[in-house]
Amino acid sequence: MRIPKHIGIIPDGNRRWALGKGMGKEAGYDNGISPGMVLYHLCKKLGINEMTFYGFTVDNTKRPSIQREAFSKACVKAVEELSKEDAELLVLGKTTSMFPEELKPYTNRHQFGNGGMKINFLVNYSWEWDLGLHDGAIGPKLKTADVSRIDLVIRWGGRRRLSGFLPVQSVYSDMYVIDDYWPDFTPQHVYDAIEWYSRQDVTLGG
């Protein structure tokens, strides 16, 4: 199989998963941490060089406070777990009051363990912020300039849209959608996505 160098992860469906289990919507986020760690180890084994996880967006912070607190805590837990692994970890997002204070030390890339895989975690992310859009003007520099072009975006939860995910880096990405919700992650999802990606004619417009 042709292995992508960089994959983007949109772990959607947490709230719908929780409702299906008879729980409150906020209960879904904590159940997304373990799948993320399994995915990290799987991608490391496959030889993928870089991963970008979609944590939450500026738009997501419009949700009820109980949900905001739940997905913020889940992002903090996930980053803290990843910091125990061999990784070069960077958290990117708008550091306003909605950005978890615990994650501010990670807004500069740090090497943990033996380093190796680059992991980017988008927290309180906004594509407008990334592009420096302000009063109709475009800023001088992409905020996520340290993030490379994404080969493959995998989205769980059945939605067929990018939802503002890294518009510059994903401009030529192939996108694979999984109907299962993120907390129901299985390694086979990734194997199927990469097998599908291997059959795509990647020309980058050439």
TrEMBL record:
Superkingdom of the source species: Bacteria
Leader sequence segment: none
Keywords: Transferase
Keyword NAD: no
GO MF annotation: an example: ditrans,polycis-polyprenyl diphosphate synthase [(2E,6E)-farnesyl diphosphate specific] activity
SUPFAM superfamilies: Undecaprenyl diphosphate synthase
Protein name from the UniProt record: Undecaprenyl diphosphate synthase
Lineage: Bacteria, Bacillati, Bacillota, Clostridia, Lachnospirales
